[in-house]
Design brief:
This protein is an alpha/beta fold and 391 residues long. It is built from 16 helices and 14 strands. The strands form three sheets. A nine-stranded mixed sheet has the order 7-8-6-5-4-3-2-1-9, with helices on both faces. It binds S-adenosylmethionine and iron/sulfur cluster (SF4). S-adenosylmethionine binds next to β2, β4 and β5.
């Protein structure tokens, strides 16, 4: 049921927090079984029961919804057995109606063991695969701490494309020591391989990672702001030429191949988040709630066993906070935001004076449909643009 604060899109995010090893750049909520953070090996069947219990908890809060998208993210969901994926999907179908065009995505790493499960995921109901390729060059893959080769990654992409109607893969660029010319050749190769969608992320140095320490100790040198902007511009140019315009700052697709799940987040729809560390946004009695789960897998599992959910946060957002989130999410999209929706959610208008100033710098533009969007040069300073408009 659509309340007046929602936009009709409803999704489910399933976070699978386990990985075979921790990549040195990654600050996602991912844990290696038998390592300190989760203690012992875990029992997949018991964990799946907890996912199912959390789904039941949220279905009581938000019954009668039509699910447009389901996304298995991680961590490494391709370490799940197809049976586990199938059990979660079957439960979702029991609890809610499923849209006939539902998108069901699973994030996969491209090792041969994981590729062997692709057909099982398809049989379980997954209809879109997103593969973590990260680089098409051997040296950078090694530096990124990946445990797959370039040829494994290429073959995973080809196999995914032969099994699934829709697929995507991720690359990380603006890496230490990477030149623009090297990236031009690598990206063109990637665009030749792509099957309609590609995600391209500039490497970011995140606190708490191995790369953070190496960067602090000057053992890795990142591109400066000017070179980063050149990387961004070159990426936009090559993707446009290949028919893969950006629909979001890091996501490029052929027209019609945009990910429903990505659009659901950035158009500020509603979603349930289940699993350790998952976040959700749901409108209850016309108030948007921000949910977050316990991050540590075993602690989350215990909480779900005791309470039926693993929530550690349930904040009711103020109108002001909703307006800020709409800007933060929506201005990442090339379609931009509808100022009228901002007004409806936040109870105030965007400052005409602020917009005029940003237009003067060439950072935002107003479209014929009334939407406000960030320009290509504005994307280089997106945080500042959002902060200006939110002020
Ligand atoms: C949830 S993560 C990883 C999914 C999967 N386990 C994998 O490693 O391929 C999703 C994507 O975020 C990107 N990513 C993660 N950390 C990053 C960082 N520090 N800088 C840029 N991109 C990053 C990677 O491209 C990754 O594929
Ligand atoms: S990048 Fe992927 S595989 Fe590596 S630690 Fe993060 S979630 Fe796990």
């Amino acid at each position: 049921m659509i309340s007046n604060r929602a936009n009709g899109l409803f999704g489910i995010y399933v976070h699978w927090p386990f990985c075979l090893h921790k990549c040195p750049y990654c600050d996602f909520n991912s844990h290696v079984p038998n390592s300190r953070s989760i203690g012992a090996a875990f029992d997949e069947r018991e964990f799946v029961e907890s996912y199912i219990n959390e789904l039941r908890h949220f279905a009581k809060i938000k019954p009668n919804e039509i699910v447009n998208s389901i996304f298995f993210g991680g961590g490494t969901p391709s370490l799940m057995s197809p049976q586990a994926v199938g059990a979660i999907l079957d439960e979702i179908a029991l609890l809610w109606s499923i849209d006939e065009n539902v998108e069901i995505t699973l994030e996969a790493n491209p090792t041969s063991v994981e590729v062997a499960r692709f057909k099982g995921y398809k049989a379980a109901g997954v209809n879109r695969l997103s593969i973590g390729v990260q680089s098409l060059r051997q040296e950078p893959l090694k530096a990124l701490g990946r445990n797959h080769s370039v040829s494994e990654a290429k073959s995973a992409v080809a196999i995914a494309q032969s099994i699934f109607e829709r697929s995507s893969f991720d690359l990380i660029y603006a890496r230490p020591d990477q030149s623009l010319d090297e990236w031009r050749v690598e990206l063109n190769e990637a665009l030749d391989m792509a099957g309609g969608h590609i995600s391209l992320y500039q490497l970011t140095i995140e606190q708490g990672t191995r790369f953070f320490d190496l960067h602090r100790d000057k053992k890795i040198i990142m591109p400066d702001a000017d070179l980063s902007a050149d990387f961004y511009q070159l990426t936009a140019q090559l993707c446009n030429e290949a028919g893969y315009p950006a629909y979001e700052i890091s996501n490029h697709a052929m027209v019609g191949e945009e990910s429903i799940h990505n659009l659901l987040y950035w158009r500020y729809g509603e979603y349930v988040g289940i699993g350790p560390g998952a976040h959700g946004r749901l409108i209850i009695d016309n108030i948007r709630h921000a949910f977050a789960n316990e991050k540590l897998p075993q602690e989350w599992h215990k909480k779900v066993y005791a309470n039926g959910h693993g929530l550690v946060t349930d904040d009711k957002l103020t109108w002001e906070e909703e307006g800020d989130e709409l800007l933060l999410m929506g201005l990442r999209l090339s379609e931009g935001i509808d100022p009228k929706r901002f007004e409806m959610l936040s109870g105030r208008s965007l400052s005409a004076h602020q917009i005029k100033d940003l237009q003067g710098y060439g950072f935002v533009e107003q479209l014929n449909n009334g939407f406000l969007r960030v320009t290509e040069s504005g994307f280089n300073v997106l945080d500042a643009v959002v902060a200006d408009l939110a002020a």
